[in-house]
Known about the structure:
Elements: E1 10-12, E2 15-17, E3 21-24, H1 31-41, E4 45-49, E5 74-78, H2 85-98, E6 104-107, H3 120-132, E7 136-141, H4 145-154, E8 158-161, H5 175-184, E9 190-192, H6 198-207, E10 211-214, H7 216-219, H8 224-244
Parallel strand pairs: 3-4, 3-10, 4-5, 6-7, 7-8, 9-10
Antiparallel strand pairs: 1-2
Amino acid sequence: MSNVRSDKPFTLAGRTFQSRLLVGTGKYRDMEETRLAIEASGAEIVTVAVRRTNIGQNPGEPNLLDVLPPDRYTILPNTAGCYDAVEAVRTCRLARELLDGHNLVKLEVLADQKTLFPNVIETLKAAEVLVKDGFDVMVYTSDDPIIARQLAEVGCIAVMPLAGLIGTGLGICNPYNLQIILEESKVPVLVDAGVGTASDATIAMEMGCEAVLMNSAIAHAQQPVLMAEAMKHAIVAGRMAYLAGRMPKKLYASASSPLEGLIK
């Protein structure tokens, strides 16, 4: 069958990863809970807000890399807390210095503190500078298909449209725009922000997303470590369902067994 889907490796910046779940490192009660939850998630890529988390820039303070060592996890520095392109570029360059030339970054430039909606104009400006500067840029963006296309054309290695606003847990608020982005994109598409529970992650994967990034959905759960494990399974289930291809939706019932040859 020509429409049968075959799986392909999840690859970013030339590296292949087994887990399609990316997790944040903020909002946990302490470093130990952070460590336990991320272990339970099975994630290989962990994202770190450089402006809020010590990864070596504050000697003498607890260092996140002591519990999440870079030889075990791929550290993905992000520019959370940046509100213009200049700040975001400066933050990425600082992260590259702290991580010995590490070029993989997650770019996010926010519009305001109330919504944390991406400022796509400043995001595009920052992306152009960072790509020219040799960074491998994964970019948080709105669910606007045109902006997603432009960010890929600039040279971002992955586009990460929001499912819902950061920290809301509302799930995928506009599946139609996300579907357009998925159909058009020539780079990996990862849902970022808005996931609230396991079913949200599964739906994103069933739609064809390469992966899902989340933080609040795990860290703010009543039992973060248990939720982290739930998310691990949700991602796997969603990917398998996407590859399997769901049955068509029908308005009326149809018998699950053949009707021919029934005893009369």
